[in-house]
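Task: sequence in, structure out. Protein: S-adenosyl-L-methionine-dependent methyltransferase.
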Amino acid sequence: MSLYHEAAEVFAVASKDGGSIKSIVFSKKKWKSDGRTLFALTTETAKWSDVLSKVIENSGVLKVEKQLSPQLALLLVHDLLLAPRGLALTPKHGLAASITKHKARLSAELTKERLRRGFASIDALRSHVNGSAGDVRSGLYRHPRWIRINTLRTSLAAQLETTFASFKPTSAMTDIMTCSPADKLVHTDQHVPNLLAVPPGVDITSHQAYKDGKLIIQDKASCFPAYLLDPSSTVGDIIDACAAPGNKTTHLAALTSSGADQQTSPSRKRKIFACERDAERSKTLSKMVRLAGADSVVQVRTRQDFLKVSPQAAEFANVTAILLDPSCSGSGIVGRDEAVLNLHLPAVDTENGTKTTHRKRKHEMAEAETKQLATDDTSENVPLEGEAAGTKLQDRLAALSSFQLRLLEHAMTFHAVARIAYSTCSLHDEENEQVVAKALLSDVAVERGWKILRREQQVDGMQAWSKRGRVEAVAAVMNADTTEEIDADVVAEACIRCEKGGEDGTMGFFVAGFMRDVEARNGGVQPSKKGAAVSATLHNGTDLQNGDEEEWEGFSDQE
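Result:
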């Protein structure tokens, strides 16, 4: 049956390349099996893989049934012993016959494993496997569902009175993260306007307001860049440099269409240029913009590499702000590392005794490093290979941070731009504070008057956010570059960090703002020869620009 073979293929891809099971299942690939069924089977089996891999190893099934791969055995044993309806196969099917003949032995080994772990019943073991709130290391962290109210189509008050009328308000995020979906709680965020949180099991996608583009599923941390950019602080157009799938783009559109912003620039309708290099992702971006009702504000630049956008182009002469959320390691995304953290493959018995499979052995040796990585659309998405995992990670971070710095320096060359928001969904200093520090020390920043957007200059909600940058990370760059100096304490305090799997209910995230004073902005300072050379280099383009933005879950009912 294709279901088990395709599920085994999902596991094989997750083991080799990393990334979440969800992103693999709901990718462009056409499966013969129903996507939701395939996702449910793989995720549930992955949860149990630590237990079941021991059961399979101790039973000796793989030694007897040569046609079964470790992935297939894991899936079949899960359904045989744990699925309410058992195997999704007829009794005469070859796969069913190969595993059901060992049911007694497998059941006995499951009992032994349960007792070895100290659980009196299978229900107690099941509760343990399903995990508790906040256990991000097990991959079972109960991440809240964040919902941004799209003010282009509705208002917070209207949605609280309609879609969420039956929900009980709570001021405590811990309530949202620990309650049952049946409790129907809703939390209004205190940092980002028009943002709500509901328990993770609540299905918003079936509501008409979601289908009409009034509600947008977007992690709280992902709302920080557009909010920090504060479109009302400038009067010109905006570029979203790496825009797909469009959550941040439509958030920008909502902010620029607010009453306060229109009062700032009443005589001219502002434009948002949304750049996306990849053709397929450009289609998603366009659809998202239309659904959100932002197409009157946003101009989607299909297959547009931001590095190839000329700062001297007349159409961008009025651009005064740039949002830059480039490709990154994705180490802060909750759920991306679920396959790496949870998937344990059973060992294969050989004539010389039990021997761990090559893939599992490499996985275990590299687990500490690979849990930080995630699949994205970049050419730097290098699968990790065993002992080389640490080297691969450092090489990839070096390549990504170099690319991120190039993008940031390119953004700083636009003549009228006075504000830039830079963000990543990474936990690594190399992609965060160190990129910020290097950008501030660059020729183009020094000569064009770019400074860090200090904490006291940030919008109220971002000023109030307590988790800030790492002073040591900024200082490390200063120690390596003695030509210029910056205040490490000030820069770190200006940087905003979000903790992955913490009490705030956010993904791991980083954002920092840059600004130019009016005198430097209007002075027309030309870059030095070195700065010009950097700018020229930036126009060469790269395949690193397009990364995943997994927090977007629109246009599907796959929840």
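The chain has three domains: 2-132+338-371, 145-217, 224-331+398-538.
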